[in-house]
């Protein structure tokens, strides 16, 4: 009888323990917070957008930005299109056109038209940067390769006019090419090429349509080809002008030496011989 009572107590205690454990597990599942995507699980430097996670910063805090205000997918799409159009126009049309003007137009107006075109394109780039920052804060894109390269390119646009101004001042003073001029030209070309390439990276990040990518490649390729042809023509024309100047200088030196030699020979003939 005592053994029966003892076994009954043991069985009741075990059953109550199991029931309590199951109830606790059920309550834990209801109270547990939903899983979140940590920014540490995602590479900090990407080209294409994340495969998992929302398109807005509303559901994922941190990771390259914070949500500034509630936005809709339509608003983000409109800002994305505006950013792409403005930046693409500045780097595929604006800056190359300014570089072409300085080579094909006649002085002195070519310098002022070049300055106006490049400053206008720079203003477009800063406008596009503002739209890009807004997008980065609202779509968590501030830590991508496209965004980081974009910041660097726009920062270089601040330095480029300073180099150009120094070159213009020294060229007017000394009337000959300067190293500042070489730096201004090649630094500007590097900025344009980097900006065009970064625009292609932006199309990948935005998951643009195939038609949009083809249109961008066509415009950028055409602008690059035209600019290259103008630069090559300018180099060949400059070499021809320098060659003509050297030839004219040689002829002038020869004529001057001949003119000085003839009076000396005539005077030698007039001198009496002993």
From TrEMBL:
Coiled coil: none annotated. The keyword Electron transport applies. It is found in: Membrane. Residues 50-74 are annotated as: Disordered. GO terms for cellular component: membrane. Residues 82-203 form the Cytochrome b561 domain. Keywords: Electron transport, Membrane, Signal, Transmembrane, Transmembrane helix, Transport. The keyword Zinc-finger does not apply. InterPro entries: Cyt_b561/ferric_Rdtase_TM. This is Cytochrome b561 domain-containing protein.
């Amino acid at each position: 009888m005592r053994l029966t009572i003892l076994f009954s107590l043991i069985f009741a205690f075990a059953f109550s323990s199991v029931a309590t454990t199951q109830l606790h597990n059920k309550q834990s599942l209801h109270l547990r917070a939903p899983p979140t995507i940590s920014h540490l699980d995602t590479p900090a430097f990407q080209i294409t957008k994340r495969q998992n996670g929302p398109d807005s910063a509303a559901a994922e805090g941190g990771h390259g930005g914070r949500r500034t205000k509630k936005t809709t997918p339509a608003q983000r799409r409109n800002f994305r299109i505006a950013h792409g159009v403005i930046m693409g126009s500045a780097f595929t049309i604006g800056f190359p056109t300014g570089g072409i003007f300085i080579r094909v137009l006649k002085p002195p107006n070519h310098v002022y038209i070049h300055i106006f075109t490049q400053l206008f394109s720079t203003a477009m780039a800063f406008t596009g940067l503002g739209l890009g920052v807004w997008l980065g804060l609202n779509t968590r894109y501030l830590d991508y390769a496209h965004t980081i390269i974009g910041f660097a390119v726009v920062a270089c646009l601040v330095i480029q006019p300073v180099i150009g101004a120094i070159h213009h001042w020294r060229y007017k003073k000394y009337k000959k090419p300067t190293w500042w001029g070489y730096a201004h030209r090649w630094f500007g070309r590097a900025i344009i090429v980097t900006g065009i390439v970064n625009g292609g990276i932006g199309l990948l990040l935005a998951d643009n349509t195939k038609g949009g990518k083809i249109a961008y490649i066509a415009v950028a390729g055409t602008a690059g080809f035209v600019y290259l042809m103008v630069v090559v023509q300018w180099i060949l024309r400059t070499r021809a002008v320098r060659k003509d100047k050297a030839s004219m200088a040689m002829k002038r030196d020869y004529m001057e030496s001949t003119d000085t030699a003839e009076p000396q020979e005539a005077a030698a003939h007039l001198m009496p011989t002993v």
